[in-house]
Amino acid sequence: MRTRLLLYFILTLTISCFAQEDKYTKTMSKTMMMMDSARTNVDFVNLSNAFERIAKAEKSKWIPYYYAAECQIMASFMDSVNGKKDSYLDKADIYLTIADSLQPNDSEIYTLKGFSAQMRMVVNPMQRWQKYGELSNSLFEKAKELNPDNPRPDYLVGQALLYTPEAFGGGKKNALPVLKQSQEKYKKFKPETSISPNWGGSILNNLLKSLEEDSTKTGTSK
């Protein structure tokens, strides 16, 4: 009798855990889908708040904090007021610190840390490039060290190089090898779960296609 009761208890507990996990995954998936239609800093802030609510309900999960941070970084990018950009990034860094405490030494988290540092530099490139350029590069290197197959560090590095003047080591010639290396990694990359980070690939493909078309036009004109 005791054995049957124990088995019944274990079975009930297992079913309950799976049901909770399924609810969490569905809620995350639904919120993540809304990121595709976000267009303004307000949209991304609202989504960040939604991910934070999920994170507070699922205290052991790092991924909601990751997406909350990503949305704050995107809000910083979208906001045209330079004076407000750092405030978004401050929040992003708080979320990333929590995510890092829940999932130490994760390549995706270090990638977003590097992305946040990149956006700090964008606020005032002339005054901040030395501090935040060096910081973002070191964070991306750490992300690649933790997972050499992660395509996102190379994507963000290559994209930054593309819009950096050639005099400072940037430009299309220097960016293309890094972007193409990222593209090759995207072709092989498989996220661990349906809600694991898996962004950037389609944007990179469109960017490379645009660069190839520009090169063709330039070549034709010559």
Q: Can you describe this structure in just a few lines?
A:
Helix content is 79%, strand content 0%.
What does this structure look like?
- The protein is mainly α and 222 residues long.
- 79% of the residues lie in helices and 0% in strands.
- The longest helix is centred in the first third of the chain and has 33 residues, at 2-34.
Largest sheet: none
Derived from helix and strand composition plus strand pairing, the structural class reads: mainly alpha
Rounded mean pLDDT is 90
Helix content: over 70%
**Record field, number of beta strands:** 0
Radius of gyration: 21 Å
Q: Quickly count the helices.
A: 9
Quote the distance from N terminus to C terminus.
Answer: 88 Å
The geometry reads as globular
- Ranges where pLDDT stays below 50 over 5 or more residues in a row are 4-19
Helix-strand sequence: HHHHHHHHH
Beta-strand content: under 5%
